[in-house]
Design brief:
about 200 residues; mainly alpha; disordered C terminus
Length: about 200
């Protein structure tokens, strides 16, 4: 009976650094496009290779930014929270009630009350800047608006400020804000309708 023949050991892989006689025991990625293909170095030369490694070398700033964004999601597509897996059966788009059948249910009633409250507590977005110029809080009525306009017009009129250009510019802003608010107030606060008899 013959004894098992031992295979001769394969010669060690040489270090890929030019002129290095040491064995290449440590691997390093070939380049950023071939991260699963390796170069083999001795310990000293793999350290040197790693110190000089620059994954983003040769990339334009826009490519670097796109690469970083993709890495933040582990190279997988992402969606805004709540789109997938976050289905809420009570979201408004699933509870549209064009015929008013659900009008008096507690859910719809509370939503309607919240909407009406918010409508009165917060100014419409397009009026916020004008209210800021006039230094008025929301809601505002026509008489308060008129009184505030008269006060600001007197204060910033060029004649009252010796022809100061900044006062003149401020008065132009006040006039524009007043005009916008005056036009919009009747639509936002319609006159009460007479009760049906």
């Amino acid at each position: 009976m013959h004894g098992a023949v031992e295979e001769p050991e394969a010669p060690p892989r040489p270090c890929e650094h030019p002129g290095c006689p040491q064995p290449g025991e440590f691997r390093a990625p070939r380049d950023r496009l071939h991260l699963n293909q390796y170069r083999w170095f001795c310990l000293d030369h793999v350290r040197e290779y790693n110190r000089a490694w620059d994954y983003y070398k040769g990339m334009a700033p826009s490519e670097i930014e796109a690469n970083l964004r993709a890495d933040s999601g582990w190279q997988r597509p992402t969606w805004p929270l709540g789109r997938l897996g976050g289905f809420n059966p009570f979201e408004s788009e699933y509870l549209r009630d064009p015929l008013g059948i659900l009008r008096d249910t507690p859910l719809h009633k509370s939503r309607r009350e919240r909407t009406q409250k918010n409508r009165h507590d917060e100014p419409p977005p397009e009026l916020r800047a004008a209210l800021g110029v006039m230094d008025l809080a929301w809601p505002v009525d026509a008489s308060t608006l008129r009184a505030r306009y008269k006060d600001l017009a007197k204060r910033f009129h060029p004649d009252a400020n010796g022809g100061d250009k900044s006062a003149e510019e401020r008065l132009k802003d006040i006039n524009r804000a007043y005009s916008l608010l005056r036009k919009r107030l009747p639509a936002l606060n319609p006159a009460p309708q007479p009760a049906a008899g």
